[in-house]
Write a structure and sequence with these properties.
This protein is α/β, with parallel strands linked by helices and about 500 residues long. The chain has 23 helices and 15 strands. It has 4 domains: about 150 residues, P-loop containing nucleotide triphosphate hydrolases (Rossmann fold, 3-Layer(aba) Sandwich); about 80 residues, Helicase, Ruva Protein, domain 3, CATH 1.10.8; about 170 residues, P-loop containing nucleotide triphosphate hydrolases (Rossmann fold); about 80 residues, Helicase, Ruva Protein, domain 3 (Orthogonal Bundle). About 50% of the residues lie in helices and about 15% in strands. β4, α4 and β5 form a beta-alpha-beta unit. The structure holds adenosine-5'-triphosphate (ATP) and magnesium ion (MG). The site of magnesium ion has 4 residues, from α12.
Length: about 500
């Protein structure tokens, strides 16, 4: 939804007797722009309150935005009413205002822990639903007492649209005029705006100013740097980890079947496919035993496709408050969508959205799973989901039904050929020339080993070699192999069970 559309939707809410509107956002300047934009038209007075300043008339002048850090210094602000910094006093003063107005309360929700403040707020809301004034409560993540939650309406202020970002960037560039060189054409500016999707206006401004001032110019290279900065911003936000293609060195041995499938699926992202109105591939589920390269496969897909990899940390979605976890999930996928085309990786999906925990957590994982399924079904952006799972019995059967994922793959223990490839990858990673080793012998002795176990064996033998002050050789690796009991032996039953179910239902990655 564009910003003007948001403004008119907000106007409708105000006009339709809503006593309180809640906006969850950190972007106060956009709340300000929203309220001003809506109220200038309707000619309704606007007040704002914060614990620091108290209650004051809002500037309400679009040409003099004091919130804007690039506004000229010394911009005047209206005086606050005396003795209104206390939330209770503020609410009482608000009740005394005799004409229709909007009262914007910043970061007010935490004060509602006080019963008297909460009660007073309810009374204000009830009064307002008769006299057409409206409270606007904004803050980062707002949790309201239940009886108040029932009396408010939530307004979803989406992240900035490209045109808002464009405007914010232009403002910064203008303010830096003379100090920097602009080496971007129209295409470059569009790429810059694209790279900033998912950021707030403040973040976008800072990032652009930094990129420009760092080397005195704004050039195509900056787009890359901005993507890196975005990785950091996403990480700080806590729900998604972002790994850009150039920082993703994953190397996967074997998995030929999967690699083949992926090469074909890739055309689904091409402009030609788009021209034919074909939907982009939705995603895959990779099931298999521990340490056999499921996570590595997810990383490899993003690297091969040269797409950003976004890892959804499902554990961090959880919140003790009802509804918050689903909200976190929405926020995470919305952020992911701003990065499209991208690979969204949900590791060990059964742990966060599985079945067993559904009673223990009051159905939270079920609800989260429901949100995920709906999104998977409806998503329009080119986000390719790679979900991985160890334990089939924990996965809700709905997820395994045909049509949810494009394909479900099963990863078994690596065969001879794959073990040879894995051995070589890990020897080379640790600066060893595979030609110095008896590979056929190593392939033979590591029968039943997972990729992770092979990697561990190589590492162990290298430590031993350093300790014995001699070069590592086949014997040392074999020794390490003999000292290891692989999962395929210690957990033979589990493996057989998984294999029996998976082999007939899913496609092998080989
Ligand atoms: N096919 C492979 N090629 C190269 N390395 C591999 C392969 N399989 C596993 N490895 C090595 O084992 C490590 C662990 O693999 P990975 O984390 O991908 O396994 P997983 O199947 O996700 O296991 P888990 O179920 O424990 O999460 C990898 O970091 C990699 O070094
Ligand atoms: Mg894994």
């Amino acid at each position: 939804m564009s910003f003007p559309a948001s403004i008119s939707q907000f106007q409708t809410l105000v006009m339709s007797f809503h006593g309180a509107i809640v906006i969850e956002t950190v972007e106060e300047e956009r709340v300000q722009a929203l309220i001003n934009g809506a109220m200038n038209d309707l000619q309704i007075a606007v007040f704002e309150w914060s614990a620091a300043r108290g209650l004051a008339r809002s500037q309400g002048n679009v040409h003099n935005r004091w919130q804007n850090e690039y506004a000229p210094p010394g911009t005047q602000r209206p005086q606050a009413l005396p003795d209104t910094t206390d939330p209770l006093d503020a609410l009482r003063s608000i009740q005394d205002v005799a004409f229709q107005a909007i009262f914007w309360l910043k970061d007010f929700a935490p004060h509602l822990k006080d019963d008297v403040v909460a009660r007073q707020l309810r009374e204000v809301i009830q009064q307002f639903s008769h006299n057409r004034s409206t409270l606007v409560i904004s803050g980062h993540s707002i949790t309201l007492p239940r009886d108040i939650a029932q009396e408010v309406v939530y307004f979803d202020l989406k992240l900035p649209e490209p045109d808002e970002l464009y405007q914010a960037i232009s403002e910064v560039v203008r303010s830096l005029k003379g100090r920097i060189k602009i080496e971007l054409q129209n295409d470059g500016i569009n790429a810059l705006v694209q790279a900033m999707r998912g950021m707030t206006l403040q973040q976008a401004r800072k990032v652009v100013a930094f990129a420009a001032l760092e080397d005195g110019k704004l050039c195509p290279e900056d787009v890359k740097r901005i993507l890196q900065r975005k990785a950091q911003v996403l990480h700080e936000d806590g729900l998604l980890d972002y790994i850009p293609p150039e920082m993703n060195p994953a190397q996967l041995g074997g998995f030929d079947g999967l690699k083949c499938w992926l090469a074909r699926a890739r055309v689904g992202f091409s402009t030609q496919a788009k021209a034919f109105n074909l939907p982009a591939p939705r995603g895959i589920l990779i099931v298999g035993i521990q340490g056999c390269g499921k996570s590595l496969a997810a990383k490899t897909i993003a690297r091969e496709w040269q797409m950003p990899l976004l890892k959804l940390d499902a554990g961090r979605l959880y919140d003790k408050y009802v509804g918050e976890s689903e909200k976190n999930f929405r926020r995470a996928v919305t952020l992911a969508e701003t990065m499209a085309p991208a690979v969204l990786w949900i590791d060990e999906i059964e742990k966060s959205m599985g079945q067993s925990s559904s009673d223990a957590d009051g159905g939270l994982s079920r609800r989260l799973f429901g949100s995920f399924l709906t999104w998977l079904q409806e998503k329009s952006e080119a986000i390719f989901v790679v979900a991985t799972a160890n334990d089939l019995s924990q996965i809700p059967p709905e997820l395994l039904r045909k049509g949810r994922f494009d394909e479900i793959f099963f990863v078994d223990l690596p065969d001879d050929q794959e073990r040879a490839a894995i051995l070589q990858i890990h020897l080379m990673r640790h600066k060893q020339d595979p030609r110095r080793f008896d590979l056929p012998l190593l392939v033979q002795v590591t029968d039943g080993f997972s990729g992770a176990e092979i990697e561990q064996v190589i590492i162990t033998s290298l430590y031993q070699a350093i300790y014995e002050k001699r070069p590592v050789n086949t014997d040392l690796v074999v020794e390490a192999v003999k000292a290891t009991v692989p999962l395929s032996i210690s957990r033979r039953e589990d493996l057989h069970r998984l294999r029996a179910i998976a082999q007939e239902r899913f496609v092998s990655v080989k």
